[in-house]
Every structure is written in structure tokens, then in C-alpha cells.
Amino acid sequence: MNKKLKILLILSILIPLVIAVTRIISGNISFWYDPARDLLLAIDNHQKFSLIGQTSGIPGIFYGPYWIWILSIVLLVFKDPRIVAFIVLTIPYFTIFPFILYKLKDVWGLWVSVMLWLFFMFSYDGYVIHLWNPHLAPVLTLATVYLLSKIDFNNKNFTKLKIAALAGFLAGFTMNFHISFGLGLVIGSTVFVFLRRNIKAFALFIAGLVLAFVPFVVFELRHGFNQVSTVIQTITSPTAVVSEQSGVSTQIFYLFFDSLSRLINIPDGAGIVFFFTVIVSLFLKIKNKKIKLSKNEKGILLLTSLISLSTLSIYLLSKNPVWDYHFIGFEILFLFFLGIISKHLKIFRYLLIVSLLILILIKLVDFSKEISANHLSNSSLVTKQYIVDIIYSNSENRDFGVFTFSNTAYAPAFDYLLMYHDGVSNYRGEERVDLVYLIIPWTTIDLRDDFIDNRTPNEEYETIKKWEIDDGTLLLRRERFE
Predict the structure, then answer these.
(1) Residues with Cβ < 8 Å from 151, sequence gap 6 or more?
(2) CB 413 within 8 A of CB 367
(3) Measured between alpha carbons, how far is 368 from 371 in angstroms, rounded to an integer?
(4) C-alpha distances in angstroms, 373 versus 26, 28, 175, 377?
(5) pLDDT digits over 340-352, tens only?
(6) Any residues with CB less than 8 A from the CB of 96 and at least 6 apart, and which?
(7) Which residues of 411-428 are buried (b: 16+ CB within 10 A; e: fewer)?
(8) Which domain holds residue 246?
(9) DSSP assignments along 342-362, one per residue
(10) What is the average pLDDT across 70-85?
(11) Helix axes 110-123, 249-263, angle to 10 degrees
(12) Domain tally, the chain
């Protein structure tokens, strides 16, 4: 490899990394209910070790504990959500992800791996900075599929098949972070290994899979298999156990192919046209013996197809809502598909390169505008921290209570930031003490006034000062009459 190509390779890693780190340092990352709740659960885990994680979308079913455990370890040293996000998301995506794609160069070549890396990093850049447990699923899925593709199923030696155990563990591990897609990954991977007709590899895969669910099993043994009962009730219930409604079957297919559209920077809805055009082209070239897929390529296509079909079947048969985030992970399956077709179909490889260059240009222009933009105009982490800083600097070391207007019972984002502000806290929670601050994101005047009077009755409190934040949030200092 000559010097220019080495520089290009380094830049392919460095540019996305600089963008990600800049956003994290600036605080221009989301910090909402779920990540804040998880950080509070992780801190609670320091006092009482938990075998389950946060609640899932179905009442009575919980995520695995690994996400909370990882956060707990980081929070022993760092409390700033920026640093936490960098450690648990950015580092894995900029180490494990490119390493695996580099290893996959043996399948489709180095520069196809670079192209796939850049497509993912510029299309799904939010995964590497926004703190949320499903965002780890793609990198874990990449590792799982890669390991399964490396198993030599013709080998009968246990020692040489041990990679199957690791693949099984990673499949189960992924499900602990992203239940819906992870279940499809587990089913598809299990069927794939079973079809290979190597009983030793299958046994090792299942052993690794079971190992990933040991915390779940121990928890269920201690609590009378409550989650198992809930799962059975959810499956056998004639109606949905979640009241919200989502899209119909056509929307599920739309969201599936939208993962591809977003990945390769083409209009919404065009993914299905691109996909079947490629499939037909690939089939005709194979039929006319113009190309020949290797055994490994066939295995990868079979594996990713089984995972996709398993997951889509679960979604289509589900009586409960299927949301956009349930499709996190499919972009990895499409990455493998794109890698193989880029190797064999030159016309599509050239089209993808053009699309990638346009995508990079758009993202770099957006990033340049983002640098000089007013980050306080968005309800991001930096905006919430700015509000908390105002409260602490204005409170003059007095004890204070805070009420936040929210659609949920409580607002963990502000709760977390108020509790762990520079190691000092005069925060007394939602208490009507003499000094109270009201955080009111934009809402109607009637709802705002009702909230103010409800939390700090006008016959007891008066407004001393107010701040209007650029994102539309109103911050009030209310004090009790003397």
C-alpha cells in the first residue's frame, strides 16, 4: 500500500472520529428519559446489585443487566454523560467495528470495507454518540455474524470450534441490549448453525447462548419465573398487551427497506427498488456463470437472510406495536449484502461510490454549520446542563426543589444532572421548600399556568426571576412568601 492510500485509510477513521468527539465535547447529544433513567439505575446498582436491567416496552419484561452493569463500572469514575457516552459507545465503534471490517477484507477487499465503514459512520453516526442501549446492537451484530462466518463446520475438533461458543454468547448478549431484533438474531443464528449439521459446533453455540442468559435464569429462579409467565401471556394473548398502536404490515416492510435507503443515501422508498434490482442482476450473472459466489459468501448471505426473515416474522406476527427503533441492527445485515454485491457487480459498486461521495459532502457541510450553530436552541445535553448551571449559580447555596413539566411521571434527565452537579448538591427533589425552580419546556399558556399553580400555589409562592432558554424552555425561580 502506497503512502497516499495509507493517508486515505487514516482519514476514513479520523474524520468520523473528529465529528463524533466534537459533538460529544460540545454536549450536542441527546439526553432524554431512557439514558437518564439508565444512569440512575446504574448508580443504584452500586448499592444493590441487580440481575435485570431497565423495563422494556412490554410491562413485566426487562432488558438484561449488562447495559446497567457497564454503565455502573464507568460511573464509578465518571458522572458526566459525555464521558460515559464516549467510553461505552464511541470507543467500541471506533475499535471493534473497523477491526472486523478490516478482517472482512478477505471476503470483498480492503476498499470495499472502507466504503462500508464510511457509509455506516456517516449514515448512522448517531449510534456512536447518543447514549441508549439498542445503539450497541449493531456493533455486536457485526461481531456475531463475522464469527459465525469464520466457523469451519467441516471440522469436528472441539478446540477448533470454540469460536462457535463465542458467537452464541454474542448473539445472546445482543438480545440483552435489544430484545426484539436480538431475538431474531438468536433464532436466525441458531437455525444457521443447526443447518450446518455439525453437532459439536451446535452444542458449543447453544452453550455460549445459554451462558449469556445466566443472570436472567438466576433472577427468574429467585422470583418465581415472573418474566417467563409474562412472555407466555404476551404470546398467547388474543390482543395486544401494549395499548399504543403502530403501523401495519406494509409499514414494517417499508421500515425494513428504509434501513437500506438510509444506509446508502437514497430517497425513502427507493431501497426496495435497489434491493430487488440487485437481486435480479446477481441471479442472472450467477445463472449465466459470469460470477461465482464463494462458499463463505453463500454462508453470509444465508445467515443474514435467516436473521432478517426471523426478525421480520416476529414483527409481522406481533400483536404489539412495532416501532422504528426495532429496526436498529438491520443496517448491519445490509452492510454484508452490500459488501458482496460490491465485489461482484461493478456497476453497483460505482453507483455506491458516487452515493457515498455525495453523502460525505452533505454530512461535512452539515457539520460545518453545526459547529457555529447555537446548541442551546435544541433540547440536547448541553441545554439541560446550562439550565442546571443557572439553577445552582442562582440558588446561592440554599436548598431548593425542582419541578419539571413533563408528559411522564418524572423527568430523570434533569433529576440526574441536578443530583450529580460538580459533586455538590443542594437539590431536594420535588419538594415544596422555600426556594423552588420550575423547568417548563414549551407548552401552551394554559398548561404552563396550571403547572405553575399546581406545583407552587400562587397563594404561597411568587416568581422572583425567570429565564427564557433558546430551545423554548421557561425556567422560573419561585419563593415562598415570608
Answers:
(1) 161, 163, 164, 167, 193, 196, 201
(2) no
(3) 5
(4) 11, 10, 38, 9
(5) 999 999 999 999 9
(6) 139, 142, 143
(7) bbbbbbbbbbbeeeebbe
(8) 16-372
(9) HHH-HHHHHHHHHHHHHHHHH
(10) 96
(11) 120
(12) 2
Beta-strand pair 474-480/401-404:
unpaired
Tell me, what DSSP letter sits at residue 90? I
The C-alpha cell that represents 242 in the structure block = 401494549
Contact between 118 and 168 under an 8 Å Cβ cutoff? The reply is no
Q: Are residues 365 and 411 in the same domain?
A: no
Beta carbons of 263 and 359 less than 8 angstroms apart: no
Contacts of 38 (CB under 8 A, 6+ apart): 53, 54, 67, 68, 71, 131, 133
- Whether residues 257 and 392 share a domain: the answer is no
Does the pTM surpass 0.85? The reply is: yes
* 69 inside domain: yes
Q: Where are the alpha helices (DSSP H) in 48-104?
A: 66-75, 81-85, 91-93, 96-103
In which residue are the cell numbers 447462548 written?
Answer: 209
91 and 23 in one domain? yes
Strands 435-440 and 401-404: parallel
160-217 confidence digits (pLDDT tens): 899 999 999 999 999 999 999 999 999 999 999 999 999 999 999 999 999 999 999 9
Contact status, residue 435 vs residue 477, Cβ threshold 8 Å: yes
In a domain, 11, yes or no: no
- 7 in any annotated domain: no
Cell of residue 289, nine digits:
456463470
CB 85: neighbour CB atoms within 10 A?
Answer: 26
311 near 183, Cβ under 8 Å? yes
Task: List the grid coordinates of 474.
Answer: 421557561
Burial class from Cβ neighbours inside 10 Å (0-12, 13-18, 19+) for residue 393 reads exposed
Residue where one domain finishes, among candidates 349, 372, 395 = 372
DSSP 423-469: T---B--S---SEEEEEE-S--HHHHHHHHHHHS-TTTEEEEEEEE-
Any domain includes 2: no
List all residues 6 or more positions away from 254 whose beta carbon is below 8 Å from its beta carbon: 247, 269
Question: Which residue pairs from 64-67 have beta carbons closer than 8 angstroms and sit at least 24 positions apart in sequence?
Answer: 64/173, 64/175, 64/176, 64/177, 64/212, 64/213, 64/215, 64/216, 65/176, 65/215, 66/173, 66/176, 66/177, 66/215, 67/38, 67/133, 67/136, 67/176, 67/177
Cα-based torsion angle of the residue sequence 5, 8, 9, 15 in order, rounded to the nearest 10 degrees:
170
pLDDT class for 159, splitting at 50, 70, 90?
A: confident
CA–CA distances in Å: residue 454 to residues 279, 391, 473: 61, 21, 18
Per-residue burial over 243-272, b = 16 or more CB atoms within 10 Å of its CB, e = otherwise: eeebeeeeebebbbbbbbbbbbbbeeeebe
